[in-house]
Amino acid sequence: MQPRFQLSRRALVLGAVAVTTGISIRTAMAADDPTTPRHIGIIGAGQVGGTLGRLWARAGYPVMFSSRHPDQLQITLAEAGPNAHAGSVAQAIAFANVIVLAVPYKAEPEIAAQYGAALSGKILIDADNAYAFRDGALANEAHAEGVARYSAHLFPQTHFVRAFNSVNASSLANGGGGNTQILYSYTDNAAGDVASELIKATGSVPVRGHEL
Ligand SMILES: NC(=O)c1ccc[n+]([C@@H]2O[C@H](COP(=O)([O-])OP(=O)(O)OC[C@H]3O[C@@H](n4cnc5c(N)ncnc54)[C@H](OP(=O)(O)O)[C@@H]3O)[C@@H](O)[C@H]2O)c1
Questions:
Q1: N or C end: fewer C-beta atoms under 10 angstroms in the chain?
Q2: How far apart are CA 68 and CA 80, in angstroms?
């Protein structure tokens, strides 16, 4: 009896959220449910985020690009085609059940503080690298723990995946001719499976790494 009660209560909560926020129930459903269509939100639409979003939009996935300056994303949007949208970071998170983080590493704590609650329950694919010359002391701290684990701890309420960080954005552009290998590590298997699906959709080859 208890599980049935929890399920119907969850459905009620999702329905209420959908009515009050305008987010469709389909988008609000568990991101790691294999039957849920992927909606992808990109935080940071530069070399990595722009390239990945273009590939997924062209492959048929609904994509919303975002940055701190969404008004400057018109070229990326035009190149990505009709499945692509642009918005604020908050809008991209609300739109999507899979979020890609492609920003300078030093922005991660600030994004976690500002959007951690909104990211709750979503799959977060983190492509970021930490460099001391760009990201300062935070990079050293992250490397001391392991960058993937450090980021996973910044976003504990997400289904966290680290992927795309070890490949140059230009190699992602055409799936490297179909033989670019993309290593991914993950906090849970279901999120790993979604990452694998999305890596394949870019034309690259997923390589399963370790559980975080
Ligand atoms: N380039 C590569 O080949 C490559 C490969 C693997 C991994 N990476 C890693 O991937 C990450 C992104 O690299 P990139 O080369 O794509 O960088 P990029 O071209 O400079 O793009 C960074 C994007 O992040 C946005 N941004 C910066 N701070 C933000 C914040 N606080 N909130 C929201 N958006 C923010 C920027 O837009 P606004 O300034 O308008 O907000 C921009 O769209 C980095 O951590 C990098 O080390 C890069």
A1: N
A2: 19
pLDDT reading at 9 higher than 60? no
Q: Do 207 and 186 share a structural domain? A: yes
As given in the structure block, the two tokens for residue 152 are 């996973």
Question: Which pLDDT does position 179 carry in this prediction?
Answer: 86
Decide if 23 contacts 17 (C-beta within 8 A).
yes
Structural domain count, the chain: 2
Q: Which of 67, 77, 103 to mutate to test the pocket of ligand 1 (most atoms within 8 A of CB)?
A: 103
Tell me the sheet residues that pair with 17. Answer: none
Give CA–CA dist 79/55, Å, rounded.
10
Range of the domain at 93: 31-211
pLDDT digits (tens, 9 = 90+) for 50-76: 999 999 999 999 999 999 999 999 999
| pLDDT 10s digits, 101-149 | 999 999 999 999 999 999 999 999 999 999 999 999 999 999 999 999 9
Same domain, 74 and 100: yes
Residues 66 and 21 in one domain: no
Phi first, then psi: give them for residue 116, nearest 5 degrees: -55, -45
What span, in angstroms and rounded, lies between the C-alpha atoms of 75 and 39?
A: 21
| Ligand 1: nearest atom to the Cα of 172 | 3
